[in-house]
Design goal:
It contains 14 helices and no strands. It is 63% helix and 0% strand. With 207 residues, it is mainly alpha-helical.
């Protein structure tokens, strides 16, 4: 099928399709037997090959080697997104994702948006998370996981109408024990029981 075609081209010609990494439409393979072929393609300057090597090495627990390959790919949204996933510092991860989103421009997808919101929340940048969500078009805002990842920001900033809407919505993507939803729900309920004008309590305060 179409997702296997780029790999067949690599086998036959030693080259990958001439597309930037973020437009890659093939599968992401993780078998180390592909590594020599990908390395040869990368030697010809293929940024896509560099990112594919990075993914392959990441999945084989070779994260530091992977980081070098993602960096080698340069300023590409997918390479930056992968670097953000490897980053242990939430602020640094936010900055990498912000660069990726800037390069995407009007092509921001659900995956990039929800990961950026996750990183912003982990870094405590809740105002920034809300502002990002609020700036997106309705089609992106409609994704359930995007809305889940902005709940913490909405609670902190007192977006009560938004919270009312989310906690009356039957989310299909919520997994058992998912803290983005359950932790926020109890905080939201405790807040609604407080006199009007009081700040939203923290999870620790309601335990």
């Amino acid at each position: 099928g179409p997702q296997e075609q780029p790999w067949l081209e690599l086998l036959r010609t030693g080259n990958l399709p001439d597309v930037p990494p973020y437009r890659w439409e093939g599968r992401f393979l993780t078998d180390l037997r592909w590594l020599p072929l990908l390395e040869r393609a990368a030697q010809s300057g293929s940024a896509t090959a560099a990112v594919l090597i990075g993914v392959l090495l990441t999945e084989n627990s070779r994260r530091e080697e992977a980081r070098g390959w993602f960096e080698r790919a340069g300023d590409d949204p997918l390479a930056l997104r992968c670097l953000a996933q490897l980053e242990e510092d939430p602020d640094r991860a936010c900055d990498l994702m912000s660069r990726a989103l800037g390069l995407l421009g009007d092509e921001v997808t659900r995956e990039y948006a929800q990961e950026y919101l996750q990183f912003l929340t982990q870094a405590g940048r809740l105002q920034q998370a809300w502002d990002f969500y609020d700036s997106q078009d309705a089609s992106l805002q409609a994704y359930e996981r995007v809305r889940l990842y902005v709940l913490s920001a909405a609670l902190k900033l007192g977006k009560i109408d938004f919270l009312d809407e989310q906690y009356s919505h039957p989310f299909a993507v919520v997994r058992e024990g998912e803290r983005e939803y359950t932790g926020g729900y109890f905080t939201y309920q405790a807040w609604k029981d407080l006199p009007e004008g009081q700040d939203c309590p923290t999870e620790e305060q309601i335990r």
